[in-house]
Design goal:
The protein is of the alpha+beta class. It has helices spanning 45-51, 56-68, 73-76, 90-99, 110-118, 192-198, 203-211, 231-238, 252-263, 273-282; strands at residues 83-88, 121-122, 134-141, 149-155, 161-162, 166-175, 178-183, 224-229, 266-267, 286-289, 295-307, 313-323, 329-339, 342-347. The chain contains ten helices and 14 strands. A hairpin with a 5-residue loop joins β4 (149-155) and β5.
């Protein structure tokens, strides 16, 4: 029986061997042999994968997708182009299978294999020396928004770490249509919490969310939009709160307002650029309600991006601001970071609801 995988994460280092490639002319009509491990003069991404004895499970996954779906990854990666493939080693895939109680890669549904594989591909060529800490768009389309692809967060502070769980262990296997970086884990499909938890510039907000037991607001329980303040903005806000030291008695009203403020950064709707553009066409500025039951006012500024074949101007979002209930205005720092459960927008201010002035009265139950 085939099994469905929700979260993909693995660990393990591996030893590596690679057949050296010879220079041959690009040939977009080249046929990849369907005998595992048999390929001469490997130069394309697909050929280099087939030729590498430590990428045999990846090759099998690519062949399953090719044989059973209309997605032609192994073909597309064998013709001219510019792609970056973070290729999981055999050890990485074996850990994925063992963790999920699966015997063989063929026991994963083809649709899930497509999701796994596309989450490892960037539609641009990036050598390791040009990788910088930040967000990159993968080849995997979002289930909730066809106009956006799932993002990955790469941290280059110590090596190259992707989404906090996969490390590049052999970079820069150069192909004539891109590059392969071999990784020691299957890259997990990210939630908003994946990004807030691994982007060091968001640690203030993320750590406070976790400390307050509010992880579900950025976890995988629902599709949502999160407006997350940078450390500079959040730490400036937090420094003005009368929060007791660890072990000391906390003022429950202070904590209640803090929790309410954290929840004021989350909207149960995927407010990506296309949705914001559609909403601003109807009314601008417009209001959205947060899970703290407070309203945010969003004001979108557009610019002409292109002109279509009919001569009609195509507009795009140039920027947008968010104003909270107290009149604080947040500008966007990074937009359209797409997770599996919604959109992350990084902002430069904390969004506050109306303060709660007294604790709610808890009625005692009648005996």
């Amino acid at each position: 029986m085939k099994k469905h995988i929700i979260n993909k994460c693995v660990l393990f280092m591996m030893g590596l061997g690679l057949l050296s490639s010879c220079n041959i002319e690009d040939d977009s009509t080249a046929v990849i042999p369907f005998v595992p491990g048999v390929v001469e003069n490997p130069v394309t991404i697909s050929q280099l994968i087939i030729a590498n004895p430590n990428l045999t499970i990846l090759e099998r996954a690519l062949r399953v997708v090719e044989a059973e779906t209309n997605t032609r990854l192994i073909t597309d990666l064998n013709i001219p182009g510019n792609s970056t493939f973070f290729a999981p080693s055999d050890a990485a895939f074996m850990e994925l299978l063992a963790t999920n109680g699966i015997d063989n890669i063929e026991d994963i549904t083809p649709d899930d294999l497509i999701e796994i594989l596309q989450n490892h591909i960037l539609p641009i060529e990036v050598m390791s020396a040009n990788l910088q800490t930040g967000y990159f768009e993968t080849a995997l389309e979002s289930d909730d928004n066809d106009d956006l692809n799932i993002s990955m967060f790469i941290n280059t502070a110590e090596g190259v770490v992707i989404n906090g769980n996969a490390t590049v262990v052999m970079p820069d296997i150069d192909a004539n249509n891109g590059v392969i970086h071999i990784v020691d884990a299957v890259i997990q499909l990210p939630t908003i919490a994946t990004f807030t938890g691994n982007d060091p510039s968001l640690s203030g907000f993320h750590n406070t969310v976790i400390a307050q037991g509010l992880r579900p607001i950025v976890g995988a329980l629902a599709t949502r939009a999160a407006f997350v303040p940078t450390n500079e903005a959040f730490n400036a806000f937090a420094s003005g709160l009368d929060i007791a030291e660890e072990g000391e008695e906390q003022d429950p009203l202070v904590i209640l307002n803090l929790r309410n403020t954290l929840q004021n950064h989350v909207v149960v709707d995927d407010l990506s650029a296309p949705e914001l553009l559609d909403m601003s066409d109807e009314e601008n500025p417009f209001m959205v309600e947060t899970i703290a039951e407070s309203n945010l006012s969003i004001n979108v500024t557009t610019s002409v991006e292109d002109v279509d074949d009919a001569g009609v101007e195509v507009t795009a979002i140039a920027s947008f601001t968010i104003t909270d209930a107290l009149g604080n205005v947040a500008n966007t720092v990074t937009t359209d970071v797409q997770a599996s459960n919604g959109t992350l927008t990084i902002i430069n201010a904390v969004l506050q609801p109306e303060p709660i002035l007294e604790l709610p009265v808890v009625e005692e139950e009648m005996e």
